[in-house]
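Reviewers asked in the last cycle whether our approach scales beyond single polypeptides. To address this, we selected a multi-component target totalling 817 residues and predicted its structure end to end. The input consisted of the following lines:
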Amino acid sequence: MKNRIDMKGIDKSFFATRALNNVDFSCVSGEVHALVGLNGAGKSTLMKVLGGVISRDSGTIEVNGTPVEINSPADASAQGISMIHQEYSLINELTVAGNIFLGRELRKSGPFLDKKEMARQVKEQLDRFGLDLDPYKPIRELNSGEKQIVEIIRALMSDSWLIVMDEPTSALSEEDKGRLFEFIRRMKAEGISIIYISHHMPEIFGIAEQVTVMRDGQIVLSERTAETTEDAVIATMTGTELENFVKPHKEILGEVLVNVAGLTKNEAYQDISFDVHRGEILVLTGLRGCGAPELAKAIFGLDGDYNGTITYRGAALKPGRGPAVAVSDGMGLVTENRDKNGILPQLSVRDNIALPFLEKSVKAGVLDGRAIEKVVTKAIADTSTKTSSPNQEIRFLSGGNKQKICFSRWLDPDLEFLILLEPTRGIDVHAKADIYRIIEDLAERGVGILILSYEIDEVIMLADRVITLYQGQSVSEFTYPNFDKDQMLADIAGVGQPH
Amino acid sequence: MQDFGKLFRENNIIFVTLALCLVFFLISPRFLSVDNMSAISRQIVPIGLIALGQFFVVVSGNIDLSMGMGSVLFAIVLGVIFGVTGGVALGIVAVIVFSLAFGFVNGLLVAKLKLPSFIVTLAGLFIAQGLSGLIIPRGQQIFLMGGFFRFVGAEKYFGFYASFLFLVALFALAYVVYNHTRWGAYVIAIGNSEENAKLAGINVDRVKIGIFMFSALCSGFAGVILSSRMGFVQPGLDGNGLLLDGIAAIIIGGTLILGGRGTVTGAFWGLLFIGVTNNALNLLNVTDVWHQVFKGSIILAALGANYVLWQSRQAEAQ
Ligand SMILES: Nc1ncnc2c1ncn2[C@@H]1O[C@H](COP(=O)(O)OP(=O)(O)OP(=O)(O)O)[C@@H](O)[C@H]1O
Ligand SMILES: [Mg+2]
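The resulting structure, written as structure tokens, was:
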């Protein structure tokens, strides 16, 4: 039997922000339904209404033609609806299996948990995902890609007929994405329906039957993917033609800003050496576990437990000197995990942006409000961040807009070296081009930039130079214009022939 | 030998406690006598009950300040019912009902009105204290006499006090609940992130109310056992001292004060640590004022030792 869900006339406002404006949305089983739109368009909000996470102001939800009450996540799961949330939703102190079965535990006779059986089932799924993980391992010991896979497996194992995936690929390597899509195809064949939110057009046109576009809390287009094109979808999303970003390549003449020599940290990375020149964009790429985030932490001074040397502006850096010193030396870092260590959720957008500048904005012992205001206004404008005001608490921003704030806080005139871990994770097509432009401007100004990106097209678009990593070892180096995409993909997968 | 090293690192608090015992033994060999061990086992029962209740409350990211004075109040309920009717069973039932009701109100205010547990239970502390003094004016007491109270206060099986065996049984039960039922996982989940616990479909409010009811019930038991041992009830007991000892026990035992992490076995060892310290300071005739100073210093030293051990374990993990 075919299942279907109909959301009718859904309204939702957050104070002055009208997040959803009379939205009608339907979805039938056995299909992948893509939901797209710019950051802040209302995608997550619509799905949170469906998932019972937030209450709607008005409108109805019908399952197979009968109106149903969905007022809590438990209600939603009773209707066979489960979600992979855009924000991190695991419990750090519970195990992998404990998280996957949280809220619907398997029990032996009586009240006792059947931990063995849960672990066995989880192990089976992990194996299918090619992830060699102990189901009894606590979540806090996993890296962000592994966590994302646990979130995915949790939804897959929930026996739901409808699974909402809110940007599920944002922390995944190419390899894992492939596995996810394979799963999605298999589920589709079993009659399961998937609502898939993403900013990646090729992904969407690869797996979705139907695509719905949201803009400013409304649905502006809903069509079969076979009958539309990427360009048409992007145009309806933005309301304008998208200016494509084309990198103006130039010769890098700047002096060496950062030199990394023989950097080794037992498991994480081994014998890594490279230079970053002033004005150069060096991109590291690899698969999950390639060691790049750990490397970035060492360079930024967050981790002092390594061998080898890091030289910055001609002087050797003290290992683990801490981020405070790094910032005052003109370094910046955008982390890959914004919910955990990127933002201060209780603070306003303004305070989140101004944070690294506070020290410098002190005039005669007090904060110089006007100087801060200027930095903040410019940062918001430069990244076209959608916020009701700089006073808005940052946790109320949409996922992509939070990411923009993490980025914009480093647009400081004294910046000399910027490390970006997955800089456009969760960012819409429009803002992505903005961010590429900002990165390019920074480089133009002489800032040295080190980027970790898992998206090969982004790597090629941004880089002056690329280093591929495989399991903590550097495999190959490419310099513009000699970017060989196939070779890069082979190298990061560890199957490259020596060349 | 390597295995021993591993054991040592994973159970820091055990070794810190045993080391402390050794020190006390060297100062006063009487410390390790059978009689004294037995005395310690009885002294720790009320603290242990409070600690057990606090364990779940703290792991869930809350605190319950009302349960020290609560146990004094619950004991008075027992005393009054017993004094008026002479019925022991009725008195015990009254304590159970009354304590559960008290915990229910605490939990309801915290869960439904989203009030901070610190404030709610601080108010509860004052109310319990006030009510105690209202029911029995200071300086007066009600005597508890009869077989039941003697049994609870002094009966031994196989050389162990009945009350101590009861405590151990409750800890064992808590261990099973915490590690092998849904409820334990939900307490941890709520302590880590209430938001994410809700997303997983957990009825967070119900779990929270349950946690506060359990804490109050434990405190009711503590009141009954403490007053049975003394043979009377009166409002002047140091309930808050009891509460602080209970909280100290679980924190020393590795429970994260911010919630989300802790083990029942750790809490038990923390309890032994506190019990040993209290007892030894009495045994060594340390005067009251110095008693407090020493106790504070020993706790700090223990935490310091614990930290050093923890670091060596981190280094090992690298
Ligand atoms: N709890 C909240 N309080 C106030 N405003 C909110 C809240 N949640 C969302 N909003 C606002 O509602 C709008 C829609 O947000 P939503 O998260 O649905 O966007 P989105 O389409 O998922 O964007 P993204 O691609 O960045 O994830 C945004 O302007 C956001 O700031
Ligand atoms: Mg979103």
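Chain B touches chain A at residues 176, 180-183, 185, 188-189, 191-193, 195-203, 260-261, 318 (CB under 8 Å). We regard this as preliminary and will revisit it once experimental data from Aim 1 are available.
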